[in-house]
Amino acid sequence: MPLADVNGTKLFYEIHGEGYPVILLHGFGATRAIWIAQVGALSKHFKVITYDNRSSGESEHPNEPYTLETLVEDLKGLMDLLKIERAHLIGQSMGGWITQNYVLKYPERVNKIVLMGTNHKGSGIHMMENTMADLYEQQKQDKEQAYWKYAKLVHHRRFIKEMQADPNKKFYGIWSAKDMIDEMTENKMSPQDYKLLADAVEEHNVTDELHKIKNQVLLIAASHDKLSPKMVLNEMQERLPNSSIETFDNTAHHVFIEVAPEVNEKVITFLKN
């Protein structure tokens, strides 16, 4: 089991493929498994590293408070351990928050950046914490009902209808709604984990520092994202001096799952050019 002992904690990570390193950072309440539709496609071109943040998935779940700076140092520690001097970073939602803070502190360690459904500040994270804590209790009684409630937050209604019509349908030949229900149930996060993580990342606010990020940045926005509205991504694009944006219609927060082939194509083209 690949556990990295870094920065005073143990992080579970996986490596797929060979080539230039690309590190994927997942969002709040998720795990590295959320990248199920990206790993296969990206690993044909790059060395893909996914990992569970502390308090998430199979990584260590501490009992003591930590900070956003801690999560930044976790990433640096993992890169140091794997002897990765420089990498492309892909951050989704909260993973994008960590990415922004990381590149501002360690610009020399980052090449290109992809930010999906993210924000330049951490407002509203405790609302998400409370929602995830409620779902934690609900899934003890009915994991499917809990998942469909969660799906309304992160998926477009068109996509939800398609999943509900056949929960066993393998989207793009990779995953099904049933797989997502099982993944949510297997996530080892507790209400305490959600609180510690939310307390850490609520300090995220780089609005006035985005102009310092000189890296090439691709922003992925979704037309119906309730958690990271496309207007926020548009604002970020205006502040990031070397950025471009791709908006996908009729998609929501988990756009990278809903239209995975299209998102993957844009990301691979951006990283390879």
Concise structural overview:
With 273 residues, the protein is of the alpha/beta class. It has helices at residues 36-42, 68-81, 94-105, 125-141, 143-154, 157-165, 177-186, 191-201, 230-239, 255-258, 260-272, and strands spanning 3-6, 9-16, 21-25, 47-51, 87-92, 110-116, 217-222, 243-248.
- Topology, number of strands: 8
Number of helices: 11
Rg measurement, Å:
17 Å
Note the main sheet: 8 strands, mixed
Indicate the overall shape: globular
Mean pLDDT: 96
CATH topology name? Rossmann fold
What do these coordinates show?
This protein has a single domain, classed as Rossmann fold (3-Layer(aba) Sandwich). It is built from eleven helices and eight strands. The two termini are 34 Å apart. Helix content is 44%, strand content 17%. α1 links the parallel β3 and β4.
Chart the SSEs and their pairings.
Elements: E1 3-6, E2 9-16, E3 21-25, H1 36-42, E4 47-51, H2 68-81, E5 87-92, H3 94-105, E6 110-116, H4 125-141, H5 143-154, H6 157-165, H7 177-186, H8 191-201, E7 217-222, H9 230-239, E8 243-248, H10 255-258, H11 260-272
Helix pairs in contact: 1-11, 2-3, 4-5, 4-8
